[in-house]
Amino acid sequence: MSVLIARRLARCVVLFLVSLVLSYALASTALDPRAYFEDRRPPPPTRVVDAELARLGMDDRAPLPVRFAHWADGAVHGDLGRTIDGESVRAEFGRRIGVSVRLLLVGTLAGTAVGTLAGVWSAVRRGGFGDRALAGFSFAVLCVPTFVLALLLKTGALAVNRAAGTGVVKYTGEHTPGLQGDWSVHLRDTAAHLALPALCVALAAIALYSRYQRAATLDVLGADHLRTARAKGLTPGRALLRHGLRISLVPMTVFFSFGVLTLVTGAVFTERVFGWPGMGSWLIDSVEKGDVNSVVAVNGFAAAVVLLAGLVADVLHALLDPRVRQP
Amino acid sequence: MSTGPAARGPAAPVLQVRGLTVAFGAGRRRPAVPVVRGVDLVLRRGEVLGLVGESGAGKSLTALSLLGLAPPGAQVGGSVRLLGEEVLGRPERELAALRGSRIAMVFQDPLHAFTPVLRVGDQIAEALRIHERPRPRRETALRRAVELLDFVGVPQPSRAARALPHQLSGGMLQRAMIAMAVANRPAVLVADEPTSALDVTVQAQVLEALAAARRETGAALLLVTHDLGVVAGAADRVAVLYAGRVVETGPAEGVLCRPRMPYTLGLVGSVPRLDTRTPPTPVPGTAPAPGTIGPGCPFAARCPLAEPECRAAEPPLTGVDSLSRAGTSAPDAHTAACRRIPEVRRWSAADLFGRPPADTPELDVTGTEPPAHPSTTPGAAPAGPWQRATGAFAHAGSPNTAGGTAEGTVPGAGSVGEVVLSVSGLGRSYRLPGFRQRRAPVVRAVEYVDLEVRRGQTLALVGESGAGKSTTLREIASLAAPQAGRVEVLGQDTALLSRRAARELRTAVQLVPQDPASSLDPRMPVGDIVAEPLHAARVPPAVVAARVPRLLTQVGLRPVDADGYPHEFSGGQRQRVAIARALAVGPALLLLDEPVSALDVSVQAGILDLLLRLKRALGPAYLLVSHDLAVVRQLADRVSVMYAGRTVETGGVAEVFGRPRHPYTRALLSAVPLPDPVAERSRRRIVLPAGPGPGPRAVSGCAFRARCPVQALLPAAERRRCAEETPRARSAGEAAGHTVSCHFPHR
Question: Same domain for B531 and B438?
Answer without folding.
Answer: yes
